[in-house]
Q: What sequence folds into this?
C-alpha cells in the first residue's frame, strides 16, 4: 500500500489481485469504515460478494452514522457529519456508489450538484442574551500571544505532545477567544482533550481556517447521514451479493502469534510520486512502537447471534477486518418524558470489550483503556427536537435568517449559545432531514458539551432532563417568551435525548501505540478499522478517517496495485500557510504585530532583502505584509 495524488492514480483501475476468488472476508461492524472496506473489496480487490460477510450487533447498519424514526420515540439523530471537499478517499469511493434516488448518477454526483447549487454558510454563528446575535462578526479575537501559542503547537514534534492535554499549551488567551468557541463547539473538543489531536486538526484543516467562523468551508448531505451515506453503500453491497449478518455480536477474535516472521510489506509503490516516496521511506510515518515482525494470524472469530454462540475457524486466506472500540457504544435514549439513562458499563459483544480481549493477545494491538476508562471525561449529550407545527419555526427563522422549509441550507452549521451553562449548540440541516418526514415538521439537532451543569432555565443538569425539558432550555435560549415555553415544549415539539458515554473517547490524551496500526507489522490476514486504528496525518471524528482506514486495510492485505490518495497536502502548501496566518489574525498583516525595537529592525532588514523577489510578491498577495 502506498500513497499517491493526482489524476494519474485517481482515474486508474487496478488489476484483479491474484487468487482473490479463493479468498474470503469477515468484517466486524457496519460503520463507515467497515462498509468502506467492503466496498473496496468489491470494487478494487474484485472479491466475489458472496465471499464477504459483515457482522453487525444491531438490527440495522450504520454505526455512529444513524438516523431513524423509532416507534414510540420519534425521529432520532445521535449526531451529524460535516464534509470537506478534500476528503480524498470519501470522494474516491462515492463516485462509484449509485444514488438510491436518481438513476444513472452517483452519490458524489448528487452531493456535488447539491452543494454547488446550495452552498453552505452561516448567517448567525453564535447567540447570547436569549437569541440575540453574539456579534462575533467572523473574528477569531486572538491576541498576538494567543496566535503565538497556536503557532508553537503547530510546529511542536508529536512526541512532545504524547499524553498531554490542550491546557498544557493554551492558556486563557486562547481559551477565552472566539477561536476556541468556534473550534471546540464545531469539533467537540474539551479543554482536557489531546493536545496531539488538536495539533493534527490544525495541520489537517489549515486550508479551511478562514471558513471556520461562518462554516463556508463545510458541505452537508441532503438528508440525514444514514439515508444519504449508509443506505446507498448497503444497497451497493447487497446488489453485489455481500452477506449481512445482523443482530450478531463478535465476542472475540483469537490470534496465533509466533512461528517466525510475518509478511514484510513494502510501503512504497512503483507508481508513487517522488516526494511521497521520500516521505514513506524517511521514517516520518512512524509505526507502532510495540510492533514486531512476529507472525500474527487471526485463527477464530467467536460469534453470538441472539444468544446462539458459534465460532468460525479461519485460514490465512480468510481476511478479518476489525472495528475496534466505538464512539457510540453504550448510547442510551430517553424520550419526551424521560431522561436518557447513564449506562457506561462495558459488556461482551461490544466494541470496547472485544478490543480489550484482542489487545491482551499482543502489545501492538493497542491500549483500549486509554480511551474508555473515564466515561465522565468522554461523554456528552445530544437531542433531536422535531417541531410538530408552525408555532416554533418563526423563532428559528429569526435567528438563522432563512426560511427553514425551503429544502435549502437553514442554519448552515451549528449555532452556539455562548452564555448557555450547557454550552449548547443547535443546528438544522436541509429540511426535511428524513425522506418520509411530514413537510410541516422540522428536525433540529441539539447538543451540550457541559451536560452536568444546571441549565439556565430548567435549573437541572442536562443529564437529568427529559426531552421536553431540553426543548424548553433550547426555546429559552432562542428568546421565546417564558410564558410560552412550557406549552411549546410540551405540545408543539417532540424531543428525544441521547446520552453517549464514549462519544469523544478518541480525543483523550494518547501516545504512540495506544491505537493499533491499520495493518500491524507481522499481520497475515487481519486489519483494524475506524476511529481507533492508526493512520498517519489524518484526524479522527471525521467520515474521511473511517473510510481511509477501510481503503488502506483492503489495499494492504489484498495487495491492490493502486495508490491510496494521500491526506490533502495543504499543510505543505505555502499559500495555505500564509493565508491561514493572516486569517487567524483577523486579516491583520504580520507587520502589525507588537514587536520590540530589535525585532522590528530585524524584520525590516529581512523585508528589504526580499523586496523585488517573488517571495515579497507572494507575501503581499496574501496580505502577510
A:
Amino acid at each position: 500500500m502506498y500513497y499517491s495524488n493526482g489524476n494519474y492514480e485517481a482515474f486508474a483501475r487496478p488489476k484483479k489481485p491474484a487468487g482473490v476468488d479463493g479468498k474470503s472476508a469477515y468484517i466486524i461492524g457496519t460503520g463507515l469504515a467497515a462498509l468502506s472496506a467492503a466496498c473496496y473489496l468489491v470494487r478494487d480487490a474484485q472479491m466475489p460478494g458472496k465471499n464477504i460477510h459483515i457482522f453487525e450487533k444491531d438490527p440495522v447498519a450504520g454505526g455512529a452514522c444513524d438516523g431513524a424514526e423509532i416507534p414510540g420515540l420519534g425521529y432520532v439523530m445521535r449526531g451529524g457529519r460535516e464534509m470537506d471537499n478534500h476528503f480524498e478517499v470519501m470522494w474516491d469511493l462515492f463516485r462509484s456508489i449509485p444514488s438510491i434516488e436518481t438513476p444513472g448518477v452517483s452519490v458524489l454526483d448528487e452531493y456535488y450538484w447539491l452543494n454547488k447549487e446550495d452552498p453552505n454558510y452561516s448567517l448567525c454563528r453564535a447567540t447570547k442574551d436569549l437569541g440575540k446575535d453574539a456579534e462575533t462578526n467572523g473574528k477569531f479575537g486572538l491576541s498576538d500571544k494567543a496566535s503565538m501559542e497556536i503557532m508553537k503547537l503547530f510546529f511542536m514534534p508529536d512526541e512532545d505532545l504524547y499524553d498531554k492535554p490542550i491546557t498544557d499549551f493554551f492558556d486563557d488567551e486562547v481559551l477565552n477567544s472566539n477561536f476556541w468557541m468556534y473550534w471546540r463547539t464545531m469539533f467537540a473538543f474539551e479543554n482536557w482533550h489531546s493536545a496531539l489531536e488538536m495539533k493534527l486538526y490544525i495541520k489537517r484543516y489549515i486550508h479551511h481556517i478562514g471558513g471556520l467562523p461562518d462554516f463556508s468551508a463545510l458541505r452537508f448531505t441532503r438528508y440525514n447521514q444514514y439515508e444519504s451515506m449508509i443506505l446507498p453503500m448497503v444497497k451497493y453491497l447487497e446488489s453485489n451479493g455481500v452477506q449481512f449478518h445482523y443482530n450478531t455480536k463478535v465476542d472475540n477474535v483469537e490470534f496465533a502469534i509466533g512461528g517466525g516472521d510475518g509478511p514484510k510489506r513494502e510501503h512504497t509503490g512503483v507508481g508513487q510520486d517522488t516526494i511521497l516516496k521520500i516521505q514513506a521511506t524517511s521514517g516520518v510515518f512512524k509505526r507502532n512502537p510495540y510492533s514486531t515482525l512476529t507472525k500474527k494470524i487471526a485463527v477464530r472469530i467467536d460469534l453470538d447471534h441472539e444468544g446462539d454462540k458459534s465460532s468460525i475457524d479461519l485460514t490465512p486466506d480468510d481476511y478479518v477486518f476489525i472495528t475496534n472500540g466505538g464512539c457510540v457504544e453504550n448510547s442510551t435514549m430517553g424520550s419526551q418524558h424521560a431522561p436518557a439513562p447513564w449506562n457506561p458499563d462495558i459488556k461482551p459483544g461490544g466494541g470496547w470489550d472485544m478490543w480489550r480481549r484482542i489487545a491482551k493477545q499482543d502489545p501492538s494491538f493497542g491500549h483500549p483503556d486509554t480511551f474508555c476508562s473515564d466515561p465522565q471525561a468522554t461523554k456528552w449529550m445530544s437531542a433531536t427536537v422535531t417541531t410538530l407545527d408552525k408555532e416554533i419555526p418563526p423563532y428559528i427563522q429569526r435567528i438563522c435568517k432563512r426560511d427553514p422549509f425551503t429544502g435549502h441550507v437553514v442554519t448552515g452549521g451549528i449555532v452556539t449559545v455562548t452564555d448557555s451553562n450547557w454550552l449548547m449548540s443547535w443546528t438544522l440541516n436541509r429540511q426535511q432531514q428524513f425522506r418520509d418526514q411530514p413537510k410541516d415538521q422540522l428536525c433540529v439537532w441539539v447538543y451540550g458539551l457541559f451536560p452536568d451543569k444546571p441549565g439556565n432555565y430548567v435549573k437541572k443538569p442536562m443529564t437529568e432532563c427529559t426531552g421536553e425539558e431540553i426543548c424548553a432550555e433550547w426555546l429559552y435560549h432562542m428568546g421565546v417568551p417564558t410564558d410560552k415555553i412550557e406549552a411549546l415544549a410540551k405540545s408543539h415539539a417532540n424531543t428525544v435525548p441521547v446520552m453517549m458515554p464514549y462519544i469523544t473517547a478518541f480525543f483523550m490524551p494518547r501516545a504512540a501505540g495506544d491505537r493499533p496500526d491499520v495493518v500491524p507489522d507481522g499481520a497475515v490476514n487481519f486489519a483494524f478499522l475506524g476511529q481507533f486504528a492508526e493512520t498517519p496525518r489524518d484526524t479522527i471524528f471525521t467520515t474521511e478517517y473511517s473510510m481511509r482506514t477501510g481503503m488502506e486495510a483492503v489495499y494492504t492485505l489484498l495487495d491492490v496495485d493502486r495508490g491510496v490518495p494521500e491526506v490533502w497536502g495543504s499543510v505543505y502548501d505555502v499559500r495555505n500557510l500564509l493565508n491561514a496566518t493572516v486569517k487567524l489574525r483577523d486579516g491583520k498583516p504580520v507587520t502589525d504585530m507588537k514587536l520590540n525595537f530589535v525585532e522590528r529592525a530585524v524584520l525590516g532588514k529581512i523585508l528589504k532583502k526580499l523586496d523585488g523577489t517573488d517571495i515579497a510578491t507572494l507575501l503581499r498577495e496574501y496580505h502577510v505584509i
Q: What stands out?
A: Residues 139-211 form one domain. The mean pLDDT is 96.
